[in-house]
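Section 3.1 - Work completed
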Amino acid sequence: MAHPSKSAAPDGSFQDVLNAAENPVELMRNMPTGAYIYPVVAPEFTNWRDEVMAWRETAVLFDQTHHMDNLIIRGPDAHKLLSYTAINSFENFPVNRAKQYVAVTPAGHVIGDGIVFHEEQDQYTYVGRAPVTNWLMFHAQYGDYDVELTADRRSPSRPMGKAVHRERWRLQIQGPRAWDVIEKLHGGPVEQLKFFHMGTLNVGDLTVSTLRHGMAGAPGLELWGPYADYDKVREIIMEAGQEFGLKAVGARAYSSNTLESGWIPSPLPAIYTGDDMLADYRNWLSTDSYEANNTIAGSFVSDKIEDYYTTPWELGYGGFIRYDHEFIGRQALEAMDPALQRRKVTLAWDSGDMVRIHSSIYGTAELPYKFFDLPNANYGSSNFDSVIDRDGNVVGLSMFAGYSANERTALSLAIIDPQIQPGARLSVVWGEPDGGSHKTTVERHQQLAVGVTVSPVPYSTEVRESYEGTWRKQGQV
């Protein structure tokens, strides 16, 4: 399938940005955009500790309306577009189902992932972060596809008081008492469909779309509908859930959920190098795209941008790969040995070293250690801290760090060399070299090697044994 180059947009292309940069790594390490922001939703509704503990103890309302794109794909070639761009098989994907979607480059490196909903015949919606939205839009425009796209982009990171509008609202009801809330909303029993099957639910006088989801073995639902109904639906849900201990989850608590569930949310989209299709893609991307403003944070620094790329197996997506269809990156993946790929793990950070990090901000004699924010400690869009062995050799990368109020432990999700076993003792180098980069989220600081214990994904035994969606455990040590 041909992909002719697109002339640069009026404000230039992303390739122009790369051409002007000395090195893609240095460009993104010093990008002023800083950390990934979960916009619009209040940081806290009660306090983030109670909000985190509620998804294990009672029930929570996650607000996913603002931080993700919705890309609605309509037309007779919608299935063809998704199949060609995904490592997943779309051969058995009827209406009213959803599935995890993973896209890779021709070299087999991950661009991103998200959820695809099959809503109607010849109509699908991708929900997730911008790199996959951009990849699908590019191929829809330059491939031989009869499709119509509606891009409902994520809300502005800093709306500065201006009105925010989305095509759809999106909420989740989760936790041990979630189904009590759901049946009260509905006015009676609700069929517990299979995982990732879709249905409907009564909310007041509205009928909203649903997706069966779940946390720690407890069934829950994701709900969505037209944005005009957002306030009404949210108020009805919160009122119905009051007797069951339902708590609204703010942006601070929400971001720490992935530490417990095991999803690495922001791999670097592997599109910064490569010829032919990827060169065309970089010329298609604009200077205001996610890729052109992405930030790299952490102690791992390499001159080669390729050292930041990941494969599906490393992120736990190896089980998704199906060679029953032609797709971008198929030949490259077939040539890789899964046994040699790094594996996804959780790293449990030593409490004593965490005390040193936090106490250092009160001393005046020397630079403090890099600030470890709570509960989400990430300070870039894509995070890469070196994981080292006792001899100082880099044996992996820590890619998402924070604190779990349920486990009362600092944790990070990482990819490490496959021979390293659970229980092994390693260190994460916390903080950037030479006092830090020029990102807006980085203050002057010094580094610290934090002791960590290699642990399973998901970290919690309860979650690991009963979390719905076994893909989160694939590729773990």
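Second construct:
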Amino acid sequence: MANQPEAIEVRKVPLHNVSDASELAKLIDDGVLDADRVVAVIGKTEGNGGVNDYTRIIADRAFREVIADKGTRSAEEIKGIPIVWSGGTDGVISPHATIFATVPAEQAVQTEEPRLSVGFAMSEQLLPEDIGRVAMVEKVAAGVRVAMERAGITDVADVHYVQTKTPLLTIDSIRDAHSRGKTVRTNDTLKSMELSNGTAALGIAVALGEIEMPTDEEVLTNFEKFSSVASCSSGVELDCAQIVVVGNVRGVGGRYRIGHSVMTDALDADGIWDAIRGAGLDLPERPHHTDLKGRLVNVFLKCEASKDGMVRGRRNAMMDDSDVSWHRQIKATVGGVTAAVTGDPAVFVSIAADHQGPEGGGPVIAIIDTGDDPTGYQFP
């Protein structure tokens, strides 16, 4: 294969506080990762997960500073590394980061079996008037195709995870659009988070052939259109889409594999197990977290409160609760279900899952380590 990508090392590390990147520094100091080979970071921070969640900016700065201090890349190169933070660790979810770095060919495990490959891209600038409209769908889809090519993935069936971070609307960006005679889809900055996430997911689905191009009117209304591999977050810290495509490629080498499935509702633990099996891990019919034996590196999920206010025929009050946002309640719920499956509270669970998996559920992505000495979490 021309332009064969390099093998990938994947490690999950805890965040000991909101500005902590010491575990990344330790991996670099110990020779596990090369700072100049870090290609993406995806993590959870302990903020409120809202428009004003500045923990994402603090964590972003901490990780980029370590990469700069311990490597040789320029400030501009480091700025281009996709580092995607999802705010909000409600319930038992534990702050953490999953780090992806390339491995020199001579150090990689050699195999012709499918192994994890990563590609990344930055979309064209997303203007405030693009958010929630076909213009954003098209820009994200174009970026996904670039990231696929960089990952060496030629078949969309080999894509198992697409993580994006896109801008949401702020008072300043809304004012900017109006000053240029443009309109925005919403003046509600919190609502714009869901709008940005959902539009990005539709862009992913279009790029992967999961759906036909939607209309502006179908964004956040036609939930029959969704991607099964999309995990979309948004924030105030960027003005384009950061796109990370992760899939399996034969011949790339390495130890890691990825798979995906969907949760059909907030309690669908079987959907999580299906994703882990899909990554290639043999499990008993009724598995337990002790069957993972350190082979599960991490799982990445999106979740959403069902719009009919029901789960498995039972009514809940999340959507009517004026004291605690349903965002926080569903995240804590799915985080608890996921941690019970994995035996590890450091799981990536993010809300605002419109157009990401079936309504009331969401995509589940799992990465496993096939090596002789697996690096996944094992409770002491």
